[in-house]
Design goal:
alpha/beta, about 25% strand, four-stranded antiparallel β-sheet, six-stranded mixed β-sheet
Length: about 250
Amino acid sequence: MLQFDRIGKQFGGLQVLQDVSFTVPQGSVFGLIGPNGAGKTTVFNLVTGLLRPSTGNILFEGKDIGHAPPHKITRLGLARTFQNIRIFKEMTLLENVVVGMHDHLHYGLAGLLLNLRGYRGMERQARERARELLSWVRLDHKADELADSLSYGEQRKLEFARALATEPKLLLLDEPVAGMNPAEKTELMTEIANIRERGYSIFMIEHDMRFVMGLCDRIAVLNFGRIIAEGTPDRIKSDPAVIEAYLGKDEEA
């Protein structure tokens, strides 16, 4: 579904990514892990069009998106959540999710201003779909509450629901459990697994190893801008290069 082909990224004279290649299969949960500063966020910014690769190609369903603007990438079917939650706290949960559907609501300015039948019908369908998506993350009972009233973990789940409202083919999760307590992490793990069972493909970067190992089908490990390992969770856990990257090299060895 998503392919990184020998991607390099430079900022001035600093080489942040070097010859990075990996493939995210359709229908899978794929994880990208690595120590702080490894280049994981740069990868996500390249996928979503916030940055351009210096070398190499990024392909989504066979189409080169390496130099496409963010709005076109979203229309192709990629949606992203952010490490720092970005929701509209002064709006209700329902309104937050409906905002994510704006690219799929084609009622026009006249329909909005004149409250035409077509506008009313699409608005009703959008709200019904928004309630359905909120039910997927178990927030439908708070649909009409302000987002500012939610706990941190609930705000994170609302962000997921809004991302799903864009009807993505691939959902990108940027450190989804950052700042969560253990109970919230366990709950979110179940809900992400349920989203995957509904047919969505997921690509995540995350620091919490237990979370990644419990969810991902395949994992790539990034260290100092290079992929040092890729494979199943069991293979990654036992890979000497991965252990060294996270724990450091034994000086006595």
